[in-house]
Write a structure and sequence with these properties.
The protein has 200 residues and is of the alpha/beta class. It contains ten helices and five strands; from the N terminus they run βαβαβαβαβαααααα. It has helices spanning 13-24, 38-48, 64-74, 90-97, 110-121, 129-135, 140-150, 155-162, 166-180, 185-195; strands at residues 4-9, 29-35, 52-56, 79-84, 102-105.
Length: 200
Amino acid sequence: MKKTRILLADDHSFLRMGLRTLLAAHKDFIVVGETANGREAVDAAKKLKPNIIIMDLMMPIMNGAMATKLVHEVSPETKVIILTTYGTSNELNLAIENGAFGVMMKDAAADELIGAIRTVASGGKVMPEACSKKSLTLNDNQLKILSLVAQGFSNPEIARFLGLSEITIKKHVSAIYNKLGVVNRAEAVALALRQGIIHQ
């Protein structure tokens, strides 16, 4: 059995101990490390390459939102699940925009967390409804670009139309994919139309 490699990042040692005990009861998980702040989490992600990081949102030195962004830079295959006591906050929204694959409340039931880890490990996302709606919020440039994508324009054509560089367009398209949780243009357009973000 291939085990999901998990890193724990929380500044409360008792919470890490509880998580470690919980995860140890499941044979498909293995805890490969623990850290007490966001900076340590980034360093450990680079070194250990875990499949999943269970990341506290509010930590000293570096919070979970910034750590999530940096983790994706040093270990792109690592997926972050944010643990938080707050249903919504600017930091939580930023963590989602920075690529978190899951959000779990700290008072969630143990089986919910286990299910969330397995969902994220298999490529899915776990977001509370309020967070999902927030993560689908695109800025004006992204809405314009996605509308043009839906009309079949290529990146070079969109760049010329909007008077922007192709690199800028690519960055916006990548950000759109990240916010919508999709991997290609067809998925982005289909989801945006379904959610009413853009209209035909």
